[in-house]
Specification:
Elements lengths: L2 H11 L1 H24 L18 H13 L4 E5 L5 H12 L5 E4 L6 H8 L12 E4 L10 H11 L3 E7 L12 H13 L5 E5 L18 E5 L13 E5 L1 H11 L16 H30 L4 E2 L11 E4 L3 H13 L21 E4 L12 E5 L5 E5 L4 H15 L1
Parallel strand pairs: 2-3, 2-4, 4-5, 5-6
Antiparallel strand pairs: 1-7, 6-7, 8-9, 9-12, 10-11, 11-12
Helix pairs in contact: 1-9, 2-3, 2-9, 4-8, 9-11, 10-11
Length: 408
């Protein structure tokens, strides 16, 4: 079977999953449009400001539109948030205080945030007296509710945050669905937890009809060079949630005496607004591309997550290979299909924040953007590539042709 034949066959078999993805996209597009209408977005909101940025209506309203779109009371959206890790760090330091305890109920957090949590002598949460305990997932990759209840009882009122990482990171598990997050939120409330439920929402925005704050989360955080930036946002991150927490986090982003009253961006906010408006459709394209690649790889005998029969809970797909060469060939094929730097021969290297060499394909218009077609992997066993993004389904399909031609 040729690559083209396998792709055509897989598309036929995925018609029902594609239909579900289209329904979700249509729902979320209407939701975002209503958020724009509710806030009366006008051309003036795109204007940049300088200096202190007092009265920067574009910045303030952008946060509110994000909050409305993501089911929250209030929000911060800022180009000063340099990445998902930075946004998470600001939010954690905004909410937590010395001697607080955090329970990570989704296991060990993603590599780049570990230095923020456990680092020594680098200004980490640990340096400031915040304790972070991780509760492993069970063998099925699900929350261990009995252990969570036990730890909440053990640490009592010192537990100021329950931390959930929605996406898989570099783990072989499925991302958590919004329904699973909602069930966990309800469970910890039932056992008496009254403080902050915090969700790392990276890669999950607009994949489903609801978001974590719709189902009980107090704070949700993500990056604008992932889903909600729609491929247009040049930088930035968002933090949405209950107003009392957003106020505290704003005082960490700027200064305790200033909070969310200041902040300028001379280049204007049009790309942030427009990116959010396009995000439901762009996420839909990425989901379809992920399903197609997953289906073809499954047909060829490569294990991948999530299973094709499941509705995805984020835009990432994990694909396992037998050898380091197969892994690196897959990543290189994605680079070869990129609109930018397609000529680059990739090499694994020691990226900041990771504990092993990482190989990364990211021929993107926005550097490092993972809503654009990209793939990366730690070069270690089990040899697993993490594939995500795709601004258009057609681009993902073309990349898949190159991948299959190399594998076949």
């Amino acid at each position: 079977m040729t690559a083209e034949q396998l792709i055509k066959q897989s598309e036929e078999q995925l018609k029902e999953q594609f239909k579900i993805a289209d329904e979700i996209s249509e729902y979320n597009q209407e939701k975002v449009l209503k958020a724009f209408n509710k806030r009366g977005i006008a051309l003036r909101h795109f204007n940049g400001t300088t200096g202190y940025g007092y009265g920067d209506e574009g910045r303030f309203v952008l946060g509110e539109v994000f909050a409305d779109s993501l089911g929250a009371e209030s929000g911060i959206v800022s180009p000063a948030l340099l990445s998902g890790t930075h946004a998470l760090s600001v939010a954690l330091f905004g909410v937590l205080r010395p001697n607080d305890v955090v329970l990570s109920v989704s296991g060990m957090p993603y590599d780049t945030i570990r230095g923020v949590i456990f680092g020594e002598g680098n200004g980490s949460l640990k340096d400031f007296g915040v304790s972070f305990y991780c509760i492993d997932l069970n063998e099925q990759g699900k929350f261990q509710k009995e252990e969570i209840a036990k730890q909440l009882k053990l640490y009592g009122s010192r537990v100021k945050m329950v931390y959930i990482q929605r996406s898989r990171g570099y783990e072989l598990r499925d991302a958590f669905s919004v329904a699973e997050i909602g069930e966990l939120c309800a469970f910890v409330r039932e056992v008496g937890f009254e403080n902050c439920i915090f969700v790392d929402n990276c890669y999950g925005e607009f994949v489903e009809k609801q978001e974590p704050c719709d189902v009980g989360a107090d704070v949700a955080v993500g990056s604008l060079i992932k889903n909600p930036g729609g491929g247009l946002a040049p930088t930035g991150g968002y933090i949405v949630g209950k107003e009392k927490y957003i106020d505290l986090i704003g005082r960490r982003l700027t200064a305790p005496s200033i909070g969310n009253e200041v902040g300028s961006y001379a280049y204007g906010y049009r790309l942030f607004y427009q990116g959010l408006f396009l995000a439901p459709h762009v996420v839909n394209q990425a989901i379809k591309g992920s399903l197609l690649i997953g289906k073809c790889m499954q047909t060829l005998g490569y294990e991948n997550f999530p299973k094709i029969e499941k509705t995805p809970a984020d835009i990432t797909r994990a694909i396992r290979f037998d050898t380091a060469k197969q892994l690196c060939d897959f990543i290189q094929s994605v680079q070869d299909a990129s609109p930018v730097d397609s000529f680059v021969s990739l090499e694994a290297w020691d990226m900041p924040g990771y504990d092993s060499k990482v190989i990364m394909a990211a021929g993107c218009f926005v550097e490092g953007s993972s809503i654009e077609l990209s793939a990366d992997a730690p070069v270690k066993e089990p040899y697993t590539a993490y594939f995500q993004g795709g601004l258009t389904y057609e681009h993902s399909k073309y990349a898949l042709k190159l991948i299959l031609q190399r594998l076949l």
